[in-house]
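Holo prediction — guanosine-5'-monophosphate.
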Amino acid sequence: MAAYDPENIFAKILRGEIPSTRVYEDEDTLAFMDIMPRADGHLLVIPKTPCRNLLDAAPEQLAAVMATVQKMSHAAKNAFEADGVTIQQFNEAAGGQEVFHLHFHILPRHEGVSMRP
Ligand code: 5GP
């Protein structure tokens, strides 16, 4: 697996070098809006420490990120009056990953409404 690249977009968002709409932050994690939402309320959750993807994650990074994923899933479901929530996560280019800093997608879902491509 390739090394972590500190110039990836989410690392720049963490350092405040490029703007983002932050919705939640704690000592270990950040949640912000996806710039090309595939559902209303599409959020991303990332660890604040370097991590390329799930295959590269330490257990404590995963524990912190998943706690925030659960918290944000409740918040997004309530805020968008959703019927459910889809969680997505991609690893390496072959697995669909485009930004190489670990992230989980949170997609509020409504009955009968497809996600946008
Ligand atoms: P993935 O790596 O999970 O396939 O896709 C990366 C996700 O990051 C995409 O959903 C894309 O819309 C989002 N994204 C890419 N660049 C930016 C950015 O500069 N700001 C924000 N907020 N989201 C981004």
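READOUT: The beta strands are 22-25, 29-33, 43-47, 84-88, 104-109.
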